[in-house]
Specification:
The protein has helices at residues 5-27, 37-72, 85-109, 111-121, 136-141, 143-154, 157-175, 182-188, 195-201, 206-209, 219-224, 251-256. It has 279 residues and is mostly helical. The chain has one domain (53-263). It binds zinc ion. The site of zinc ion (ZN) has 5 residues, from helix 3 and helix 4.
Length: 279
């Protein structure tokens, strides 16, 4: 029973955290919604449910087995570090976060990978439900990368689970439509990704979108010069320029997007001024 307690505490924390974020989204919204919320939330939840099923059936068995092997055979960099056990776990989590940053950059820079990530960015609003809106093909394509992360960094099952939970909590937080006090957000964004920061990453303008790739620690964007915090949230239009109408963002369209034989978008926009402002 005692071994199960931390799991219960973790679940209770996540449920409480989601409840607080949902309440704050209603009390202190950061952006005005473009779409009616219920239809959009149902669509994002459906996209997330398909992805969750793909993860449970395909990804989880592979990465769980691999992380067990990594732990028993002391694979990778972290087991070789002359550090106490707790610090090794922290190092592994930081390196997983860094390599997730690299993967996210690749999703944006490699055209074939962008097709898989595009459904996430096609959302015309940004809130907690966007954190669920990842296409299953993007998650399936990330399995080899995840395996390389686990084997090369040397991540055991417990550390992997902790990283997954922390990342999920941070992804929920930075997608949320919560207007934090500016002074608090400015301080927080020195360390972790905040809703205003991630809002810039969801801009229709490519130059703005190609920033703030970090998932948890902002350190990686700072080190690589991709951090951007110089914009007001109301200067950012959320979404992608080629998906502005209701029929562009239906559930069917969203799920079909990576498989459409359409040419890979060339992003003709040079700057925000070239995008016609919403009416
Ligand atoms: Zn992205």
């Amino acid at each position: 029973m005692s071994r199960r307690t931390p799991g219960w505490i973790g679940t209770a924390l996540v449920v409480t955290g989601i409840g607080v974020l949902l309440w704050l989204e209603r009390k202190r919204p950061l952006r005005i919604a473009v779409e009616p919320p219920l239809r959009r939330i149902a669509r994002n939840a459906a996209v997330g449910a398909v992805t969750a099923a793909a993860v449970a059936i395909v990804e989880r068995p592979i990465v769980t087995r691999l992380s067990l092997l990594a732990a028993t055979r002391a694979w990778g960099l972290v087991p070789r570090l002359p550090l106490p056990r707790a610090l090794r776990a922290l190092a592994a989590i930081a390196l997983m976060d860094y390599t997730l940053y690299v993967w996210h950059v690749l999703l944006h820079r490699v055209p074939a990978l962008w097709r898989l990530h595009e459904p996430h960015h096609a959302d015309r609003d940004l809130d907690l439900s966007t954190a669920l809106r990842f296409h299953f093909a993007e998650f399936l394509a990330s399995i080899p990368w995840r395996c390389a992360q686990i084997a090369l960094i040397g991540v055991g099952p417990r550390t992997l689970q902790l990283w997954q939970k922390l990342t999920f909590a941070e992804v929920l937080f930075h997608h949320s439509n919560v207007r934090l006090p500016r002074a608090i957000e400015a301080k927080l964004s020195l360390y972790v990704v905040t809703p205003r920061m991630h809002g810039i990453h969801h801009s229709v303008v490519r130059q703005e979108r190609d920033s703030n790739f970090s998932s948890a620690l902002t350190l990686w964007d700072t080190l690589h010069g991709t951090a951007r915090i110089d914009m007001q949230h109301d200067e950012v239009t959320i979404g992608l320029p080629q998906f502005r109408d209701d029929e562009d963002v239906t559930l069917r369209q969203t799920l079909a997007l990576p498989f459409k034989p359409t040419p890979i978008p060339t992003f003709p926009l040079k700057g925000k001024e070239s995008y016609p402002p919403r009416g």
